[in-house]
Specification:
The protein is 0% helix and 49% strand. With 121 residues, the chain is an all-beta fold. The strands form two sheets. Strands 2, 4, 5, 6, 9, 10 and 11 form a seven-stranded mixed β-sheet that branches. Strands 1-3-8-7 form a four-stranded antiparallel β-sheet, with no helix packed on it.
């Protein structure tokens, strides 16, 4: 069974950092582009970042550029989202998603269950 599992969320103060992980089971991520998305209460889901299957290409939403970094370790079958200088407006449920394609895409086939990130003092 193909599954993505996010972890690493939690409560952090403004200016703090978290690292989210997206681990795959039932398939290898080597040939998959991975995206990170988030959804805050009462808001639509938005794309945060994505990484190509090779890891050579990454994209970021303007709201997180310079603060978030996406990376992948195919040997561990895991993709990471390092989040620094967190702001209250980063509070949301964060999801990872996968599609068997080389480049970042707007459409994904497999989704994780999400991990809550709360930025508050």
């Amino acid at each position: 069974q193909l599954q993505l599992v996010e972890s690493g969320g939690g409560l952090v103060q403004p200016g703090g950092s978290l690292r989210l992980s997206c681990a795959a089971s039932g398939f290898t991520l080597d040939y998959y582009a991975i995206g990170w998305f988030r959804q805050a209460p009462g808001k639509e889901r938005e794309g945060v970042s994505c990484i190509s299957s090779s890891g050579r290409t990454t994209n970021y939403a303007d709201s997180v550029k310079g603060r978030f970094t996406i990376s992948r370790d195919n040997a561990k079958n895991t993709v990471y989202l390092q989040m620094n200088s967190l702001k209250p407006e980063d509070t949301a449920v964060y999801y990872c998603a996968a599609r068997k394609t080389v480049l970042c895409t707007y459409n994904y086939d497999y989704w994780g269950q999400g991990t809550q990130v709360t930025v508050s003092s």
